[in-house]
Amino acid sequence: MKAGVLQFFSWPERRVPIETVYERALDRIAIMDEGGYDSVWLAEHHFNTYSVCPSVHLMGMQVAARTRRLRIGTAVTLAAFYHPLRIAEEVALLDIFSGGRVNWGAGRGFDRTEFRAFDVAPEESSPRFRENVEIVLAAWTQDRLTYHGRYYDFDDIEVLPKPAQRPHPPVWLAATSPDSVRAAAAGGYSILMDPHATHAEIGEKHRLYREELARHGHPVDGREIPMARLLAIAETRAEAEEIARRGAQWTVASYAPGRDPSVDPVQRYMDGVVIFGTPDEVVDRLQQLREEICLEYLLCSPLSHRTFLLFTERVLPRIAG
To answer: Which of 33, 51, 129, 200 is found 20 to 30 A from 74 (Cα to Cα)?
Structure first.
């Protein structure tokens, strides 16, 4: 199982200076670089203390400067909010400065506050997102770009620099809803799977994705599909459960999308979203999910620093490979 970390930059109750949040995260990323992790994926959010990282491209430059081998993912570049040529330029720069270590993840977002602030109509976010991804890929692979779409028109533009990886960095699209899964599969894109869906929902969406890839004539085998999962690990199950519950409460209060009013949202996370327990229990649960939902690429989001250390020292060596 391959493992990466979905790195949030949470600022609960603003208890410490924001600079401390960043330094702690970067210290953790340095540990990842020396360990058995494949990648760190940086979470972009705006206008919310759930994750104070408004530019994954700028943050990626910091990560590139402090690491040697860790791949640097964006999870995600909120592509509908940016001019696509700026995305192409910035991600290419990051790829060059990191020595070709970028994993580009792109998504459209779902937060209405972000849509309003960036003046993007929610109903336009999907087509804008898809067009922007097309433009970025074309800018990376064509010597000079000519593109005429619904939102942008370019004639004979030389977009520089080109990425270090050729023809371009590997690309994933965030796919949360069944419709977004179908759209990504129709285009032959690989997908990122979100941390808020239950394990069962992840399994269903992964099955749908494979079916849709095959239906559209795209290869199914050999794809890496990162599945983001929240983790809480401690020496005892009771301690891990308490960490998991606090994390679920923070997530629900801060940012949890698409709540069903008939379901206790915290209990939903406890029952089907967070993986928690002792190191041995977490290893067993991950192996079970590998069989049940094809969890081959774990994109973990630790709910405490102690969870991160226990995962690094006592879980990762047993699942990596």
So the answer is: 200
- Collapsing DSSP to helix, strand or coil, 219 comes out as coil
Distance CA(92)–CA(108), nearest Å, equals 20
Q: Is residue 302 part of a domain?
A: no
Q: Which two tokens stand for residue 296?
A: 């081959």
Looking at residue 163, which CATH number applies to its domain? 3.20.20.30
Whether the CB-CB separation of 71 and 100 falls below 8 Å is answered with no
Please tell me the distance from the alpha carbon of residue 162 to that of residue 141, in angstroms, as a whole number: 8
Q: Which residues contact 223 (CB under 8 A, 6 or more apart)?
A: 190
Inside any domain, residue 191: no
Residue 210 lies in a domain: no
> Which residues does residue 173 pair with via DSSP β-bridges, in sequence order?
106, 191
- Whether 225 is in a domain gets the answer no
pLDDT tens sequence across 269-312: 999 999 999 999 999 999 999 999 999 999 999 999 999 999 99
pTM: 0.96
Give residue-wise pLDDT tens across range 57-87. 999 999 999 999 999 999 999 999 999 999 9
User: What's the number of domains the chain is made of?
Assistant: 1
Look-up of token digits 């630790």: 302
What is the residue range of 51's domain? 2-174
In angstroms, the CA 110 to CA 52 distance is: 16
